[in-house]
Structure formats: structure tokens, C-alpha cells
């Protein structure tokens, strides 16, 4: 009987250990990776902003710019540091000026200024990717809409 108990004890310990670690793993919330957040939140907003500017939909462009700013803020909250980079500093230093120029051009309904500032923002995105050793990620102005169910031209109310 003692021998059976001695053989069973390690098995019970192993089962309990697995159960505890499984319960702990289930309690840990999912944290999306930096690339996930860029693809899920930043890239679509950059695209929609570009489409709104192309269509001179200034109300939507202002909304899309605000959404893009918030996406960058959330990334900084979830990923304050990536490798040796402080994300908020890196993003802020690269996009601050183009975003401010975009805001002014959108408020002024300045198509030429908005297109130029959007181009500067796109260059800033690629600069950030290169400095993070992610030059394989190249962002451009949208050539077509990835959102066929959304109308980007201004709507008359």
C-alpha cells in the first residue's frame, strides 16, 4: 500500500500542478502584440484618413485623424516600451509635426496642404519602421478603398 501511495503521489502532484498552471493561464488577459495593434488600429485609420482627404470629406477626415491619434495613444499605453525604444517618445517625435500640419489643413479644408501633410505622415511612418529595423513594412497612401462598404465622399445634410 505504501508503495502504491509513493508512486501515486508524483502523479497527483503533476496533475495538480498542470491544473493550477492552466487556471493561471486562463486568468491572464490577452495582450495584442505591437504589430497586431498597428495592423488592427493604426493602419486602417491611416487608410481611411487618406481616403477622406482624397474625397475632400473634411468632417470625416477630422474624425479619422482623431481616431488615428487615439490609436497611437492606446499603443503607447499597451506597449510603453518595445525593445530599447520608448514607444510614446518614438511615435511622438516622428508623427507630431505631420499630425499637427494635418489638423490645420483639415480645419482649413486645404486639399493641397492636407495631401502634403498626409504624405509627410506616411513618410514618418516609414521612418519609424526603418529605425525600428522593420523596413520591410512600407506604408503608402491608399490606391483603393479596403472598405467597400463605406462611402468616403462628403454627405450633404
List the helices and strands and how they pair.
Blueprint: H1 2-27, H2 34-54, H3 58-78, E1 81-82, E2 85-86, H4 87-107, H5 111-131
Antiparallel strand pairs: 1-2
Helix pairs in contact: 2-3, 2-5, 3-4, 4-5
Report on the architecture of this protein.
Helix content is 70%, strand content 3%. The longest helix is centred in the N-terminal third of the chain and has 26 residues, at 2-27. The mean pLDDT is 87. The protein has helices spanning 2-27, 34-54, 58-78, 87-107, 111-131; strands at 81-82, 85-86. Strand 1 (81-82) and strand 2 form a beta hairpin. 19% of the residues are buried. With 157 residues, the chain is mostly helical. Strands 1-2 form a two-stranded antiparallel sheet. It starts with a helix and ends in a 26-residue tail after the last helix. It contains five helices and two strands; from the N terminus they run H-H-H-E-E-H-H.
Brief rundown of the structure:
The protein has helices spanning 2-27, 34-54, 58-78, 87-107, 111-131, and strands at 81-82, 85-86. It has 157 residues and is mainly alpha-helical.
The geometry reads as: elongated
SS field, number of helical segments: 5
Radius of gyration: 24 Å
Oligomer: single chain
> Helix and strand succession?
HHHEEHH
What proportion of the residues form beta strands (DSSP E)? under 5%
Quickly give the structural class.
mainly alpha
State the separation between the terminal residues, measured CA to CA. 85 Å
Amino acid at each position: 500500500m505504501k508503495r502504491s501511495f509513493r508512486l501515486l503521489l508524483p502523479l497527483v502532484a503533476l496533475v495538480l500542478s498542470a491544473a493550477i498552471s492552466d487556471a493561471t493561464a486562463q486568468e491572464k488577459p490577452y495582450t495584442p502584440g505591437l504589430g497586431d495593434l498597428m495592423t488592427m488600429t493604426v493602419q486602417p485609420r491611416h487608410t481611411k484618413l487618406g481616403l477622406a482627404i482624397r474625397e475632400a470629406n473634411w468632417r470625416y477626415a477630422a474624425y479619422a485623424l482623431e481616431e488615428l491619434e487615439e490609436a497611437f495613444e492606446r499603443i503607447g499605453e499597451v506597449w510603453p516600451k518595445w525593445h530599447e525604444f520608448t514607444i510614446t517618445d518614438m511615435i511622438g517625435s516622428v508623427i507630431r509635426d505631420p499630425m499637427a500640419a494635418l489638423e490645420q489643413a483639415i480645419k482649413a479644408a486645404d486639399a493641397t496642404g492636407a495631401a502634403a501633410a498626409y504624405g509627410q505622415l506616411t513618410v514618418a511612418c516609414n521612418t519609424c519602421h526603418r529605425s525600428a529595423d522593420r523596413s520591410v513594412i512600407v506604408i503608402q497612401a491608399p490606391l483603393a478603398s479596403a472598405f467597400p462598404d463605406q462611402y468616403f465622399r462628403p454627405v450633404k445634410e
